[in-house]
Amino acid sequence: MDNKKTALVTGGSRGIGRAVCVRLAKAGMDIVFNYNSGKEAAEETKKLCLLENVNVLAVRADVSNPEDCERLVKEAMEFGGGHIDVLVNNAGITRDNLIVKMSDKDFDDVLNVNLKGYFYMMREVSKIMLKQRFGKIVNISSVVGVMGNAGQVNYAASKAGVIGMTKSLARELASRKITVNAIAPGMIETDMTSVISDAAKEKMLASIPFKAMGKAEDIANTVAFLAGDESGYITGQVICVDGGMAI
Ligand code: NAP
Asked: How many whole angstroms from 2 Cα to the centroid of ligand 1?
């Protein structure tokens, strides 16, 4: 096993995932990331990581499909020379609506990507990390999973579920010194929040003590801390990176 760490990041083609890939590349890690449909955006992420002189692999894989997740992890293992040191579960979607108008499909689609996708990835990667007796898992949840949000019962259920899975898996893997933590971002400038109307944004900003949205890099820096050596004794925690939104 070589000394260089390999990080596997889901949904690395845009937004927070791209910032995480670049930040971990800056920390010297080789990067494997997946995308679902954004091949061109994935190429851009790859270019940005290559500037940091690390090895990078972009894989198309739908995290809501367990077979895709198995293949993604297998490819990451081969690429990383037989180890995966860091898993960042980040790929996520929204299908917002009031509950009385929410379809079964919108509920299921969100749970399939945001919750089951994280489960499939953690199941595969845990097998590897248990053998390695080392690993860092960072799950991107949301303040919505902590506080709830009108119009997002599906998304809130998925993100609260991620917190439950994080705490449970942290307990399962602690004896092997594998850490499992979650980050709960507040309102971050990405494609996901660009669809929110100005009026709704203003209302949300009023509820944030910082009175400002965060940047993808704010989340990426916290991921780098939880994926690095300086957070070795931290596990099962949820860190809100939200300008005070969830205080
Ligand atoms: P984004 O800009 O919409 O990017 C989403 C990423 O996930 C893309 O790379 C996308 O790939 C990938 N993805 C979506 N569905 C996928 C699937 N089925 N399989 C594989 N990849 C898939 O979102 P973001 O704002 O960066 O959000 C990233 C994470 O942070 C999500 O989990 C989100 O819930 C969470 N979060 C975001 C905010 C915020 O304010 N932005 C706040 C709290 C939490 P393709 O482009 O190829 O589809």
From this structure: 31
> SS3 breakdown of the chain: % helix, strand, coil, rounded to 5?
50, 15, 35
Maximum separation of any 2 CA atoms in the chain, in Å:
54
Ligand 1 pocket at CB < 6 A: 10-11, 13-17, 34-38, 41, 62-64, 90-93, 113, 140, 142, 185, 187-188, 190-193
Closest ligand 1 atom to Cα of 141: 44
| Residues with active-site annotation | 155
Contact 140, 97 (CB under 8 A): no
Burial 33-52 (b: 16+ CB within 10 A, else e): bbbbebeebbeebbebbeeb
Could you count the other beta carbons within 10 Å of the beta carbon of residue 89? 28
The pLDDT assigned to 97 comes to 97
pLDDT at 3: 76
Buried b (16+ CB within 10 A) or exposed e, 206-216: eebeeeebbeb
Q: Rounded to whole angstroms, how far apart are CA atoms 240 and 182?
A: 9
Task: Give residue 192's pLDDT band: very low, low, confident or very high (50, 70, 90).
Answer: very high
Neighbour order of strands in the sheet with 135-140 = 56-60, 30-35, 6-9, 86-89, 135-140, 178-185, 238-241
Report the C-alpha gap between 160 and 83 in whole angstroms: 30
Cα of 185 vs centre of ligand 1, distance in Å, is 12
Q: Which atom of ligand 1 is nearest to the CA of 38?
A: 47
State the pLDDT confidence band at 1, using cuts at 50, 70 and 90.
Answer: very low
